[in-house]
Design a protein that fits this description.
The chain is an alpha/beta fold. It contains 17 helices and 14 strands. It folds into two domains: 165 residues, no CATH class; 228 residues, Rossmann fold. Helix content is 48%, strand content 13%.
């Protein structure tokens, strides 16, 4: 089946954009809880090794749109059903071939190879037929449909399917008798001997009185073959050499019948299927997802009704609704500075921004009702970590080393997610160091979100945007988890300092009432 066909390389990339898979997850994944998201997406599809696809972001808006188109096509139930039916048949093919590898007896192996070939032929034929009957708009699936139809109609494939069916039919028509006597057996051709099981059932039928309990014993299913069964099969092959010679010939000529393009498509399409299956549960609960507009030249961006997907995953069994938030950057604005009370949703908001940017770079629908995003070349995340005694650095030094490494690798197209750095030093030092880093980021013209207790950073310049975690206006102790665009109120650090020294209203009241 090696005839030249119209070129189709990948459902993940157009032919000119094929990329290598990333062998390990990006460093920022754990900070943004993207590791939890990707693990949940790929949890039931280990056989496809999908994680490298989710570890490899795109930088070309055209490639992102290519994937978005495929995602949209697969949102059609008929298209998704067609792909899932194909995937299930291909899973059966792999299972049969894996089984054949483990078997000991030659014709037993070849029998399972034949079964795998039959299922493969049916899978391709059905896929080509069903794809022709569904509406497709994406460049990827349209190109693959054209390719698979040519593949299915090619003389080599047609001959392969016909030969497999002919061999199977010839083997299915074989009849033989096994005669067991005195601990020995012999095998002979079937010559019209009576089937006594039918006669016995007819005789005892007259004793049946209504429905009775069945005492038939179900023999355990097993994939292997005993040496006696193998010997019987060998004798049958001697009695009927021609059908078994046809089986030998088929397996010899089609030892590697799986087409590489089909195998690649079968694996790659699961990237889309896995993600759409994952978000379907959240969509049923009313959480919005959208296909963002993307650019590598325009840094003006916005998200309407976004949310932290990892939080939605962790709380999917809770009745409490997920709070949706917006953000935007216009004109010269580049860095969102988030202040407000502790436990007010600031870190979740920062993670949301990082997650949405990354998922957009994969070509996936992102959490939100509407979005326009800049495709970053790198994402840098700095979240608090436990001190590592192996590097002999204190927390402040470790913060500085990590930030220095990030800045040394960053470009104007990078995205920074910074979460409450320099909390281990004095207020004066924290302000000084934060101002130095903010100046570097602004000079670099990078995008960023910075969660901080330092309100001074929120009004650093025209490139910074102040957003504040709000509380209930009636009861300030109640967090709303809404992050709104407004000037910092000057209370963030005071609150953090009071909590550090156990001087908040709640903490003082607790001590008094003891």
């Amino acid at each position: 089946m090696g005839e030249a066909l119209a070129v189709f390389q990948s459902i993940l990339h157009p032919s000119e954009g094929v990329q290598h898979e990333t062998p390990r997850q990006p460093d920022f994944f754990s900070d943004l809880n993207l590791d939890q998201i990707i693990e949940a997406i790929t949890a039931h599809k280990e056989e496809y090794n999908l994680q490298p696809f989710f570890w490899t972001p795109l930088r070309d808006p055209e490639l992102v749109r290519y994937r978005q188109e495929v995602m949209r096509d697969l949102e059609d139930e008929a298209v998704m059903a067609c792909i899932k039916a194909f995937a299930e048949k291909m899973r059966t093919v792999r299972r049969y071939l894996a089984l054949a590898e483990k078997l000991d007896y030659d014709y037993h192996k070849k029998g399972w190879i034949l079964e795998a070939a039959l299922v493969y032929g049916d899978a391709i034929t059905a896929l080509a037929r069903e794809l022709a009957a569904v509406p497709l708009k994406s460049r990827g699936l349209l190109a693959f449909r054209e390719w698979v139809q040519r593949y299915a109609q090619a003389p080599a494939f047609q001959s392969f399917v016909a030969e497999a069916q002919q061999v199977k039919r010839a083997l299915s028509e074989l009849k033989y008798c096994v005669i067991i006597e005195s601990g020995k057996f012999k095998v002979k051709r079937y010559e019209g001997e009576a089937d006594y099981s039918v006669e016995i059932e007819r005789i005892f039928e007259k004793f049946r009185q209504g429905d009775v309990e069945s005492y038939l014993v179900k023999l355990p299913e097993r994939s292997g073959m005993s040496h006696i069964e193998a010997q019987i099969l060998e004798f049958v092959a001697r009695l009927y050499p021609e059908p078994f010679a046809a089986l030998d010939s088929f397996c010899a000529h089609h030892a590697r019948f799986l087409d590489e393009t089909i195998q690649a498509f079968d694996r790659e399409i699961q990237f889309y299927v896995a993600y759409l299956d994952f978000i379907a549960e959240f969509k049923r609960k009313g959480l919005p997802f959208c296909y963002p507009q993307v650019s590598t030249t325009d840094k003006a961006e916005f998200v309407r009704d976004g949310f932290d997907l990892a939080l939605a995953l962790a709380t999917r069994d809770d009745a409490k609704p997920i709070v949706l938030n917006d953000f935007s950057l216009d004109g010269p604005e580049r860095i969102i500075v988030v202040t407000g009370p502790n436990q007010g949703g600031k870190t979740t908001f920062a993670r949301m921004i990082g997650q949405i940017h990354y998922l957009a770079s994969l070509g996936c629908p992102v959490p939100g009702r509407e979005a326009r995003l800049f495709l970053c070349d790198r994402i840098f995340a700095h979240f608090e970590r436990v001190e590592d005694i192996r590097n002999l650095r204190g927390k402040l030094e470790d913060d500085l080393v990590r930030i220095h490494e990030m800045l040394s690798r960053a470009t104007p197209d990078s995205l920074f997610i910074l979460n409450e750095i320099f909390t281990s030093t004095t207020l004066q030092d924290a302000i000084f160091l934060s101002r130095e880093i903010m100046a570097r980021l602004i000079e670099l013209d990078a995008l960023g979100v910075w969660v901080t207790f330092l309100d001074e950073l929120a009004s650093f310049g025209e490139k910074t945007v102040s957003m504040v975690a709000t509380v209930d206006p009636i009861d300030p102790s109640v967090r709303t988890f809404k992050i709104v665009r407004r000037p910092a109120d000057g209370l963030a650090y005071a609150r953090a300092l009071a909590q550090k020294h156990r001087l908040t209203y709640e903490q003082i009241k607790e001590r008094i009432l003891r």
